[in-house]
Amino acid sequence: MDKVTIPNFHLYNGNEIPALGFGTWLGLDERLEFKVWDAPKLIDAMMYAIDIGYRHFDTAHLYRMEPEVGFVINKKIREGVVQRDDIFVTTKVWQHNHRTDDAYASVKASLGRLGLDYIDLVLIHWPISIDTSGMDERIDYLETYRGLENALKNGLVKSIGVSNFNLRQLERLLAHCEIKPAVNQIQVTINLLEKELVSFCKSQDIQVVSYSSFGSLTRSYAIDAPPPKSDDPCLDELARKYNKTVTQLVLRFLYQRGIVTIPKSLTPNRILENASIFDFDIESSDVAILEKFDCGYRSDVPIFWQKYANYPFEKQETEFLGDVPESLLVWKNGANLDVD
Ligand code: NDP
């Protein structure tokens, strides 16, 4: 069987995080319903990923997949393929649980669903707080973060951090927190380099983790997105030069910027391909070519949250914000392996 060796980055608190992980968000279909039918495929994909050498898994309460993620990890531990401390698991506290005690309870519930004794990293998923009816709760994320600090102090988690925080929100958090966040998970892609936010995180020793790193490269629905697409001649030529694919080039480019990536794939050859990026170097002249694609384009804009307090992105001028999809407000935990 093919194997991959994935290096670690160091977190400021002494813990290590594998530089590439496996994303477990199965996404929403065209009716904005969660793609629950892919759960069995996710289990198979994760088993394969562990077998070939992945050690880092990114999940969240929202993804409904914590039971499945925990099931696979525990199975591989029982089989002797890995030990618990070989694995790095991230989960996230959803917008419904932003009061300090609720955030703490959410971490405990995630532990139960994962079937683990501790979680490696817990993040505030978004700085926005919305209840299950879609009401803006306007809870300060500092309050939420205190719940994560308590979870860390009580040994439930090894590291804590945030996701989708902009620079101003991060500065405010740093000014008021007791335990500095170890990670900010944000979207960074070839045309959304987030240079200012990434260098701020670096200056504060906060590790950036990039989600949806392929942006519109692999997504069919983003057909009207600005270049590049996966068949871009310039990217294609560069990828050929290194005997790699365009997606590998993108993941390597982000790695060389010191950014962790967590690509999601249910396809075995892609799972292998995505982690086979640690055997080449993109020359600085080629890095400069890749950097030119940066145009601040965000492939996933949750515009329906724009009206809520603490929305982290630049606001768009439009009256048509739409309602928050029901599937982001209410769900049953787990899909196949439900353990509420
Ligand atoms: P990705 O950028 O990882 O893209 C996933 C898509 O790309 C899938 O359709 C997959 O198809 C396809 N794909 C994967 N590898 C390849 C490849 N080598 N060649 C061609 N196509 C490929 O998007 P995600 O949005 O899933 O982001 C990754 C992870 O980030 C999520 O799973 C989740 O864990 C996290 N995330 C966090 C967010 C946050 O708010 N903090 C927001 C969004 C995501 P297939 O599966 O069919 O192979």
Question: What does the secondary structure layout of this molecule look like, with pairings?
Answer:
Elements: E1 8-10, E2 16-18, E3 22-23, H1 39-52, E4 56-58, H2 66-78, E5 88-93, H3 100-114, E6 119-124, H4 141-153, E7 157-163, H5 167-176, E8 183-187, H6 195-203, E9 207-211, H7 233-241, H8 246-256, E10 260-261, H9 268-275, H10 284-291
Parallel strand pairs: 3-4, 4-5, 5-6, 6-7, 7-8, 8-9, 9-10
Antiparallel strand pairs: 1-2
NADPH dihydro-nicotinamide-adenine-dinucleotide phosphate is lined by residues 23-25, 58, 125, 163-164, 185, 211-214, 218, 247, 262-267, 270, 273-274.
Ligand inventory: NADPH dihydro-nicotinamide-adenine-dinucleotide phosphate
Rounded Rg: 19 Å
According to DSSP, the number of beta strands is 10
- Main beta sheet strand tally, sense and closure: 8 strands, parallel
SSE arrangement, N to C: EEEHEHEHEHEHEHEHHEHH
Task: State which percent range the strand residues make up.
Answer: 5-15%
Query: Which geometry do the CA atoms define?
Result: globular
Q: Are there runs of 5+ residues with pLDDT below 50, and where?
A: 334-340
Strand order of the largest sheet: 3-4-5-6-7-8-9-10
Q: Estimate percent helicity.
A: 25-40%
**Average pLDDT over all residues:** 94
Name the structural class. alpha/beta
Organism: Pieris brassicae
Protein name: NADP-dependent oxidoreductase domain-containing protein
InterPro entries: AKR, Aldo/ket_reductase_CS, NAD(P)_OxRdtase_dom_sf, NADP_OxRdtase_dom
GO molecular function: oxidoreductase activity, acting on the CH-OH group of donors, NAD or NADP as acceptor
